[in-house]
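Go through this fold for my students:
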Amino acid sequence: MENSGGIKASLQGRYASALFDLASENGVVSAVETDLDNLGQALRESDELGALIRNPQISRDAAAKAIEAVAGVLGTSQLTKNFLGVLAGNRRLSALPEIIRAFAAIAAAQRGEATAEVASAHALSDDQVEQLRHKLEAREGRKVKIRTSVDPELLGGLVVTIGSKRIDSSIRTRLNSLAQAMKG
């Protein structure tokens, strides 16, 4: 597996690896990956949920009940609910965003896929995402899963990150480069 040694060496990686092993044994890797994607999206969209997982003043029991309620609303699988309960019990909910990323990386590596994080100034159409996927797959020589985000500060263009490689064709970077060149 690509980069799995580095991923598994971190605390978040050990949790993600343990969850992946359990999901593999039970044949529910896709379901858990979907659960974690939904949970990650909820964390990005809800400031309250983000505050909940980072607040050290919330007791283990209260955090466990709150995250269990969130998992119920999101319709997560029992394995994911149990895992979130373990995180709450061990006071590791604050590591959840990194665990989600590590799990996705482990699952993608197991499938022989690469994940591309694509930031653009405006939302990309499905056709644009598909064209980009084909170009990245040709470049990488393997299947590429694309996760898009919008960053208006880019002004235009794209920033694509695959593993440790970054392709920055944003207008913001081009303007910054031009400003540096003009300074001499």
